[in-house]
């Protein structure tokens, strides 16, 4: 899964286009990482 | 004008969002804001001639990342605060005349990956305490755009329905040493008569305590608190059970079946919720082919639901409509 962020013209932050490859079975069997932004990790749990 | 007003009787926030009165209302098909923008055509919300799945901030949000200051000053009895949060729209397909149930299971699997990604993205915002993924389907539940889509609200607090579930799950765990959702699943499996469909990783059922005739829940077969806890293989299994369920809904009365679909996962506040399990709930408003279940006096005014049907009978009915789902890839 890939995603592309495009700024919106009316003040909203962006629109995100998600695309998927044909060979998904070869993808990592883990939640995807955002490769286009320096996304903060989901807040860590305090056990 | 948009703000959060405290409801002192209920102990919960109410959002005012007067701009939503002007939101798009049943546009003609040629002017659907969720369709691709065709060359030379009407500029929709999506500036591309085609797409697979897209997500963007709602043009008429009740919560926004940079909210205006409240239009009214709060008091000690009536606190107000800015309506901070995020409201997103997720468009499932460029096909205007379709529904999620009509989409192939591969597309639903892609959608679950998008939902998982949106949960992770939105949860990372400091001001977000709960990410709520849902779909309103059908005019019977107030839908004003027919194009297949769902919504995500990222709240600055944990909403009351979820708070109540968390309270019950926490208390059950403290008393019994095991999780409530897992125990419900265990109880339902004793007879299986309310189970609708299942596979290795997920189970769909109309629970013993269903409040709507076709209220269906999907539970994971293992402990998991949020979409981000699932592997891609597990999301494939979730897509299958989800597709089987909503396709069976459509077969009940041979029509596109309206519903409210909600996902309940752990809050995004960094606290420990290992007593809670992610699950999906469907609230279909139909009780027969021609009659709707309304939230009337007892439900709206007292909070006690009256279900005119037996979950065991409705589960058998829905189970009879379940069909195998085949992967094409």
Short description:
Chain A is an all-beta fold. Chain A is built from no helices and 2 strands.
Give a written overview of the molecule.
The complex is a heterodimer of chains A (about 45) and B (about 325). With about 45 residues, chain A is mainly beta. In chain A, about 0% of the residues lie in helices and about 20% in strands. Chain A is built from no helices and two strands. Chain A has strands at about 1-5, 15-20. A two-stranded antiparallel sheet of chain A has the order 1-2. In chain A, strand 1 and strand 2 form a beta hairpin. The N and C termini of chain A lie far apart (about 30 Å). In chain A, about 15% of the residues are buried. The mean pLDDT of chain B is about 95. Chain B has about 325 residues and is of the alpha+beta class. In chain B, strand 1 and strand 2 (about 10-15) form a beta hairpin. In chain B, the strands form two sheets. In chain B, strands 3-5-7-6-11-12-10-9-8 form a nine-stranded antiparallel beta sheet, sandwiched between helices. Chain B has six helices and twelve strands. The chains are: A mainly beta (about 45), B alpha+beta (about 325). Chains A and B meet through strand 2 of A and strand 3 and helix 1 of B. Strand 2 of chain A pairs antiparallel with strand 3 of chain B, so a sheet runs across the interface.
